[in-house]
Amino acid sequence: MAKKSAIEKNNRRRRLVQRYAGKRERLKAIANDRSLPAEERFAARLKLAKLPRNSSPVRVRNRCELTGRPHGYYRKFKISRIALREMAAAGHIPGMVKSSW
């Protein structure tokens, strides 16, 4: 089990990303629009830089929903490889069986 503080920090980042998503998207559109004057695009870049760092989506870490583990994460199931194996062995994931050959 991951530290509660690490899981909470990641959840705070997720909330910040949602809160600033619209503003960030508008500023990025202005900053990347080549038809606008350079001064206006530069001003948009400065405003973008003033937003909180944790409001950037790249700072959010994919973590297991059950354990909070940050590595070995399966996006399809939103859980780690270890939790996936335990759930599959217990029969909690439909259609998934233990491999043998």
How would you describe this structure to a colleague?
- This protein is mainly alpha-helical and 101 residues long.
- The protein has 2 domains: 1-61, Helix Hairpins; 63-101, Ribosomal Protein S14/S29 (30s Ribosomal Protein S14, Chain N, Irregular).
- Helix content is 51%, strand content 4%.
- It has 3 helices and 2 strands, in the order H-H-E-E-H.
- It has helices spanning 4-32, 38-50, 81-90; strands at residues 73-74, 79-80.
- Strands 1-2 form a two-stranded antiparallel sheet.
- Helix 1 (4-32) packs antiparallel against helix 2.
- The longest helix has 29 residues, at 4-32.
- The two termini are 32 Å apart.
- The relative contact order is 0.14.
Can you describe this structure in just a few lines?
The chain is mainly α and 101 residues long. It folds into two domains: 61 residues, Helix Hairpins, CATH 1.10.287; 39 residues, 30s Ribosomal Protein S14, Chain N (Irregular). It is 51% helix and 4% strand.
What ranges have pLDDT less than 50 throughout 5 or more consecutive residues? none
Helix percent band: 40-55%
Distance between the termini: 32 Å
CATH hierarchy, class of the largest domain? Mainly Alpha
Strand order of the largest sheet: 1-2
User: Based on the structure given, which CATH architecture of the largest domain is correct?
Assistant: Orthogonal Bundle
Shape: elongated
Instruction: Label the structural class.
Output: mainly alpha
Strand content: under 5%
Q: Report the total helices.
A: 3
Radius of gyration: 20 Å
Average pLDDT works out at 94
CATH topology of the largest domain: Helix Hairpins
